[in-house]
Design brief:
There is one protein chain. By secondary structure, this protein is of the alpha+beta class. The protein folds into two domains: about 80 residues, no CATH class; about 130 residues, Roll (Chitinase A, domain 3). It is about 35% helix and about 20% strand. The chain has five helices and seven strands. The longest helix has 30 residues. It is elongated.
Length: about 230
């Protein structure tokens, strides 16, 4: 689902669920009365929906949002067509993606100055936590790894182990060197079995402008802990 589709879905949920919030407060109005069970549950649902909207990075006018909710509650016809709303959501998505790209470029520029961080010609950044031994994988190699992938805000979107570090009880993940994102393919060929690297992968070496389903949005820098366990041709 694209950011635009997710944004529309979130706003739709807001219209549906926030209908239950009693006395949706505008600026200058008295605080909500949250004494009853219904009020508490309504507020909780509304807060969760608001959290989802914030997580999506939507810059919304709360008064106009409230007006839209009120219109839906009264059964009125929407003031805007679905085409206009979709176009506005698309523009918001593009603005968010552009800001994300600028923010991530700034992050990578600062990160490249940190001690031990190496930068390849492609823009991949990596930090060697532990070097391995033997031959590095090639594009024809198959590897076994442990890994943990995070966003810049610390959100873990994928991992092969749950603890601070992998243990023998964790199941490693195997794949071909070219069956992963470009940043991984490049990094694996720098590593040797037994190595542990921390990768800082620019969006153009990961999921780019489109992002990926789930937590990875457009233009995201990805941070990976990678443990290369085995390599074979």
């Amino acid at each position: 689902m694209s950011f635009c589709d997710r944004g529309v879905a979130v706003l739709t949920l807001a219209v549906v669920f926030l209908q239950a919030v009693p006395g949706f407060a505008q600026d200058g109005e008295a605080p909500l009365n949250l004494e009853s069970t219904k009020a508490k549950a309504s507020y909780g649902i509304g807060f969760n929906i608001g959290t989802s909207i914030k997580r999506e990075g939507l810059d919304l006018d709360l008064k106009i949002l409230a007006a839209g909710i009120a219109a839906a509650m009264k059964g009125e016809e929407p003031a805007l067509t679905s085409e206009v709303i979709q176009a506005a959501m698309q523009e918001l998505a593009e603005l968010k993606a552009a800001k994300k790209l600028d923010d991530n470029k700034a992050y990578l520029a600062e990160n490249a100055k940190k001690e031990g961080v190496k930068v390849t010609e492609s823009g991949l950044q990596y930090l060697v936590i532990k070097e391995g031994k033997g031959a590095s994988p090639t594009t024809s190699s198959n590897v076994k790894t442990h890994y943990r992938g995070k966003l810049l805000d610390g959100t873990v979107f994928d991992q092969s182990y749950d603890g601070k570090e992998p243990t023998d009880a964790d199941e490693p993940v195997g794949f071909g060197v070219t069956q992963v994102i470009r940043g991984w393919t490049e990094a694996l060929q720098l590593m040797k079995p037994g190595a542990h690297y921390r990768l800082f992968i620019p969006s153009e070496l990961a999921y780019g402008e489109r992002g990926s389903r789930g937590a990875i949005g457009p233009n995201e820098v990805l941070i990976f802990e990678i443990y290369l366990l085995e390599s074979s041709n």
